[in-house]
Design brief:
Layout: E1 7-11, H1 16-27, E2 31-36, H2 39-52, E3 56-60, H3 66-78, E4 83-88, H4 103-131, E5 134-139, H5 152-171, E6 177-184, H6 191-194, H7 201-204, H8 210-222, E7 227-230, H9 233-242, H10 247-258
Parallel strand pairs: 1-2, 1-4, 2-3, 4-5, 5-6, 6-7
Helix pairs in contact: 1-2, 1-8, 3-4, 4-5
Length: 277
């Protein structure tokens, strides 16, 4: 009798942390349902994942849209198999002063980072609770630990995800379902280019390897941890300091990293933008 592999769902899987989560899940023996908005890059990623040995279903969908999120979950259900892992990783950011950025861009952050995560978590958690088994990995950020001057909505969205994931973990602590918050720092992805932040100090500084971030996230998920600060020692140190520093100081530090034009300054510091999509 053929062995049926466990099934994992990964959003934002065309590149960066999302692709690495999918690849490493495939290497662990999972079949996949992968999602992103960019069809070409998603199809290319799926081809690479299939070479690892996974069965891969591709769902190009804009998760800002309710019906697209529902269509993704219908595809998952149509597999007729229990879902073992759901990695809710899709996200977007936008740099700049809040008074000057477009409202549409800020609402896109809310719709993708917050609304779509809640939507898919609702479907996934109910599915897993019925079986009393499964793991949800939510990509938060160390950005969740500081006020995000010149990234006000993005950091706030990650603070929401951090609180949300920790609350779910507590609700489910006596069940066979776990929820883990993955908290990267600055990571080598397309995030800063898409967020129009290549002229900032954080956009130009050295960044963590998405493969390392994904590995640490999956290891924490498999251990049932409630959260993990993933990446370099520098990232982990920043998160530790953010536990004790006052918000006003953290906001000022973030300003020095994320304000447009700071990329011309000298010594880089650390801020909390992980790049997830």
């Amino acid at each position: 009798m053929d062995t049926i592999n466990p099934l994992a769902v990964v959003t934002g899987a065309s590149s960066g942390i999302g692709y690495e989560l999918a690849r490493q899940l495939a290497e662990r023996g999972y079949d996949l349902v992968v999602n992103a908005e960019d069809d070409v890059r998603l199809q290319e990623a799926a081809q690479r994942l299939r070479r690892v040995g996974a069965q891969v279903d591709v769902v190009r969908a804009d998760l800002r849209q309710y019906e697209d999120a529902e269509r993704l979950w219908r595809t998952v259900v149509a597999r007729g198999r229990p879902v073992s892992v759901v990695a809710l990783n899709a996200g977007v950011g936008r740099g700049g002063a809040f008074a000057e950025t477009d409202l549409a861009d800020e609402l896109e952050i809310v719709d993708l980072n917050v609304r779509s995560t809640v939507h898919l978590a609702k479907r996934a958690v109910r599915h897993m609770v019925e079986r009393d088994e499964g793991s949800v990995l939510i990509t938060s950020s160390i950005a969740s630990t500081m006020p995000g001057s010149f990234q006000a909505v993005y950091n706030a969205s990650k603070s929401f995800l951090q609180s949300f994931s920790q609350a779910l973990q507590n609700e489910l602590k006596d069940s066979g379902v776990s929820v883990t918050a993955l908290m990267p720092g600055p990571t080598e992805t397309d995030f800063f280019r898409r967020a129009d932040m290549l002229d900032t100090k954080v956009g130009l500084q050295d960044k963590d390897d998405p493969a390392d971030v994904a590995r640490q996230g999956l290891e924490a998920m498999e251990s049932g941890d409630d959260k993990v600060v993933a990446g370099s020692v520098k990232t982990k140190t920043q998160e530790f300091l953010n536990k004790v520093l006052p918000d006003a100081l953290k906001a000022d530090t973030h300003r020095r990293m994320a304000e447009p034009g700071t990329g011309n300054a000298d010594a880089p510091e650390t801020a909390g933008e992980e790049g997830t999509r």
